[in-house]
Amino acid sequence: MSASVDPRLALLASSTGMPAWRNIVFVAFFVAASVSIVLGIVLQVWVAAVQLRRFSRIFGDRSEAAEAFTRLFATYGWRARLAVRLFRIPVPPGI
Asked: What does DSSP assign to residue 16?
């Protein structure tokens, strides 16, 4: 009795047996996941920038501007600091 290997099983064991569409699906998935992560971080910073610009317009020269900005920075944290640096948003002195 001779042991014969089914040629289809040998094809599945090699890298040439993997269908090309599967590679395309994997790459598309990882590209979509990467883009969604980057977009999520960018949107968080953008929302903080919009709020900071609104506050800078509303509290332009008022005395309570420092308190309002301090609360806003406490709420958004690193996103607000990054938004101020990236979008060059004017912040009142004393913050």
From this structure: G
Q: Which residues of 56-85 are buried (b: 16+ CB within 10 A; e: fewer)?
A: beebeeeeebeebbeebbeebeebbebbbe
pTM: 0.66
CA-based nearest residue to 80, from 38, 49, 40: 49
CA distance 34 to 94: 38
CB 87 within 8 A of CB 54: no
Check if the beta carbon of residue 87 is closer than 8 Å to that of residue 47: no
Cα 86 to Cα 34: distance, rounded to the nearest angstrom: 22
Query: Tens digits of per-residue pLDDT, 3-29?
Result: 566 666 555 555 666 678 888 999 999
E strands, the chain, where? none
Distance between CA atoms of residues 5 and 77, nearest Å: 63
Question: Rounded distance, CA 62 to CA 66, Å?
Answer: 9
Tokens of 80: 């607000």
